[in-house]
Amino acid sequence: MLKETLLKATQAGGQVLQHYFNGAFQISSKSTINDLVTEADKGAETAIFKVIQDTYPDHFILSEESGELVTTSNTKWIIDPLDGTVNFAHGIPICCVSIGVEVDGEMVLGAVYNPFLNEFYFAEKGKGATRNDKPIHVSAKTDLGSACMATGFPYQWEGGENDPVDIFAYFVKRGQAVRRLGSAAIDLCWVADGRFDGYYEHTLNAWDAAAGFLIVEEAGGKVTDFKGNRYSPYQRTLIATNGNIHQQLVDVVNGKF
Length: 257
Description:
The protein is of the alpha+beta class and about 260 residues long. The protein has 2 domains: about 1-135, 2-Layer Sandwich (Fructose-1,6-Bisphosphatase, Chain A, domain 1); about 145-255, D-Maltodextrin-Binding Protein, domain 2 (3-Layer(aba) Sandwich), CATH 3.40.190. Helix content is about 30%, strand content about 25%. It has helices at about 1-20, 40-55, 85-90, 165-175, 185-190, 205-220, 245-255, and strands at about 25-30, 35-40, 60-65, 65-70, 75-85, 95-105, 105-115, 120-125, 130, 135, 150, 175-180, 200, 220-225, 240.
C-alpha cells in the first residue's frame, strides 16, 4: 500500500504540473530573486497531500512549500512538489515531482516524475531502480576527465571551502563536459540512468535529493557528502557517481586538482 500510494501521489502532482505548464500562473520569490514559487508548486503539493493523507492521515510530512507536518509516525514523506521551479517558470521541461519515503530513519522508496519528458523513475530499497518500469543502471566510466558531469549552484554563496565556481571552472577547462540542468532530482536520476557519470552540489535541502539519492544507490551508484561519508537527506552537500569515479570527484570537490 505504501508503494501504491507513493506512485499515485507522484502522478497526481505531475498532472497538476502539466495543467499549469506554459500557461498563465502567478510567480513569487522566496529567499532570493532566483528562489521562486508558483501556483503550480502549491497546486501540486495540495494534490500530493490529498493522496497521502486520504490513506495515511497520521504520517509525518516534510515538504518544500509547507515545511513539516509533524506527527509521531515512524514514516515520513519528503516532498518537492516541483523541483526545477525556475525552469518551469520559463517553459523549460526539465522539472519534476520528487517524493521520498523514509521509515525509521531509512529511505525505503523514491519516485521522481517528469511528466514533460514522460519519465517516471522509481526505486525501492533492495529491489533496484527503474525508469518507466524498466531497470536502469549507472554508467561504467572510470576516468573523471572523460566523464559527463552535472552540478547546481547555491542561491547564495558567501565564500568558504569548495567554492562552486572554482570547481565548475575545473570541469570546464579539464573535463569532457559539465551540465547545469536546474533540477537536483533529475540530475540524480540521470546519474542513475547512466546519462551523467557524476553530480555534485553544495547546498541541497532534504526534499531536493531524498528520492533521487535512493534511486542512484539502487541503480548501482554511490552517494556521499563532500567528505565521502554516506549521504543523508539532512546533509547539505552531495556527491553522486557511478562509483568508479567517486574518489576522483571527492578529491576535485575538495580542491585536490
